[in-house]
C-alpha cells in the first residue's frame, strides 16, 4: 500500500487516545503515551525505536542520538528486524545488510489498549519492491506489546509455491550504565561463532559469563534467555525468547563505533545488543503454506 494510503488508513482506524501518528519530515512514527509505558514505533521497519515502562528511571532500549530517520534506511538502536537474511546477504554483497524488513514500510493492522499495555500488530507483504531483493511471496506479521514487559513476535508465512530459507534477528539494543562492568549470563557452555572483523571463527563454549573490554560480535548456539547485569545502574535486564536457535551478542567498541556514522564515537559505553536470532545451522526452511514464529521479550528485573 502506498504511504499516503497507509496514513489515511491509520487515520480512519481511530487510533486510541494514547497512540498518535506523528509524521515529521515524511517519517511516520506511532507515539505511545500510556500511564504505564511510553514508546515510539516507526512505520519504516515497524521499528520499535523507544520503549520505557514509566516505573523505570533509565531507558531500557538504546537509540542512537545520531540515528538517521529516513524512509528506506535502517535506524541505529531500538529493535531493527533483520529478515529474511541476518548479516550480509549470503550470495550478493550489494544487497542490504540484515535484509529488507527493517527498510520497508509496514502497515499497522490493529491497536489494542489495556490497563497494563498497548499491543500493536503490523503486516509486511511481498511486493515488487521486496521481490527485487528476494524473489519469494510472503506475509510477515509483527506483534509488539509494550507494557512493563516488551514482547516482539515476528511470524513469517510462506504464501508462495516454493520453499524458502530465512535467517533473522530481533536485533535488540539495550541501554546500560557502563558496558565495561556489564555481564551477560546464560550463555556459558554454548558454542559460538566469533565474527569480529568479518571472520567467522567457531569456538567451543566458555565457562565464564560474557564481559566486554573490546569489540564483541558473537553468534551463540542457544535457545534460552539471558540476564544482563548492569551494576552501574543497579539493575538486571532479562531477555527471553522462543523459536530462536541463535543468540547474538554485539558491542562495537571504539574502532567500529568510529566507522559507524550514525553512532557517536563514545556511545558504545552505554549499550549492547542481545539478539534473538536464527543464523547458521538455525536457518529456517518454510514450506509453501507454512509459517514460523520468533519471539523476544525484555523486562527489568
Ligand atoms: O550496522 P548494522 O547493519 O545495523 O549491523 C550492526 C551489527 O549487527 C550485529 O547483529 C552484527 O553481529 C554485527 O556484525 C553488525 O555490525
From TrEMBL:
Single Gene Ontology BP annotation: carbohydrate metabolic process
SUPFAM superfamilies attached to this UniProt entry: Galactose mutarotase-like (SSF74650)
Record's keyword terms, sorted: Isomerase
Domain of life: Bacteria
Coiled coil: none
GO molecular function ontology, one term from the record: glucose-6-phosphate 1-epimerase activity
EC numbers on record: 5.1.3.15
Reactions that this protein is recorded to catalyse: alpha-D-glucose 6-phosphate = beta-D-glucose 6-phosphate
Active site positions, chain numbering: 171, 275
InterPro entries in the record: Aldose_1/G6P_1-epimerase, G6P_1-epimerase, Gal_mutarotase_sf_dom, GH-type_carb-bd
Stated family: Belongs to the glucose-6-phosphate 1-epimerase family.
UniProt-recorded name of the protein: Putative glucose-6-phosphate 1-epimerase
Amino acid at each position: 500500500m502506498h504511504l499516503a494510503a497507509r496514513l489515511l488508513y491509520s487515520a480512519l482506524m481511530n487510533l486510541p487516545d494514547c497512540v498518535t501518528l506523528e509524521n515529521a519530515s515524511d517519517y511516520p512514527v506511532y507515539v505511545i503515551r500510556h500511564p504505564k509505558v511510553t514508546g515510539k514505533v516507526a512505520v519504516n521497519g515497524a521499528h520499535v525505536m523507544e520503549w520505557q515502562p514509566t516505573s523505570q528511571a533509565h531507558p531500557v532500549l538504546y537509540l542512537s542520538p545520531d540515528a538517521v530517520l529516513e524512509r528506506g534506511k535502517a535506524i541505529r538502536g531500538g529493535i531493527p528486524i533483520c529478515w529474511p537474511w541476518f548479516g550480509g546477504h549470503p550470495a550478493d554483497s550489494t544487497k542490504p545488510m540484515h535484509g529488507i524488513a527493517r527498510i520497508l514500510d509496514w502497515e499497522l493492522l490493529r491497536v489494542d489498549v489495556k490497563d497494563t499495555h498497548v499491543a500493536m500488530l503490523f503486516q509486511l507483504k511481498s511486493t515488487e519492491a521486496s521481490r527485487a531483493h528476494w524473489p519469494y511471496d510472503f506475509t510477515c506479521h509483527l506483534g509488539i506489546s509494550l507494557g512493563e514487559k516488551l514482547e516482539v513476535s515476528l511470524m513469517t508465512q510462506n504464501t508462495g509455491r516454493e520453499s524458502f530459507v530465512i535467517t533473522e534477528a530481533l536485533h535488540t539494543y539495550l541501554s546500560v550504565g557502563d558496558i565495561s562492568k556489564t555481564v551477560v549470563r546464560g550463555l556459558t557452555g554454548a558454542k559460538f561463532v566469533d565474527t569480529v572483523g568479518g571472520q567467522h571463527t567457531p569456538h567451543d563454549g566458555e565457562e565464564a559469563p560474557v564481559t566486554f573490554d573490546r569489540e564483541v560480535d558473537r553468534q551463540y548456539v542457544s535457545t534460552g534467555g539471558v540476564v544482563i547485569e548492569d551494576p552501574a545502574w543497579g539493575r538486571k535486564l532479562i531477555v527471553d525468547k522462543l523459536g530462536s536457535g541463535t543468540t547474538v551478542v554485539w558491542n562495537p567498541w571504539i574502532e567500529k563505533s568510529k566507522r559507524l556514522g550514525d553512532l557517536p564515537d563514545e556511545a558504545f559505553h552505554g549499550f549492547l545488543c542481545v539478539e534473538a536470532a536464527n543464523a547458521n545451522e538455525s536457518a529456517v526452511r518454510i514450506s509453501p503454506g507454512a509459517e514460523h514464529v520468533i519471539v523476544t521479550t525484555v523486562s527489568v528485573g
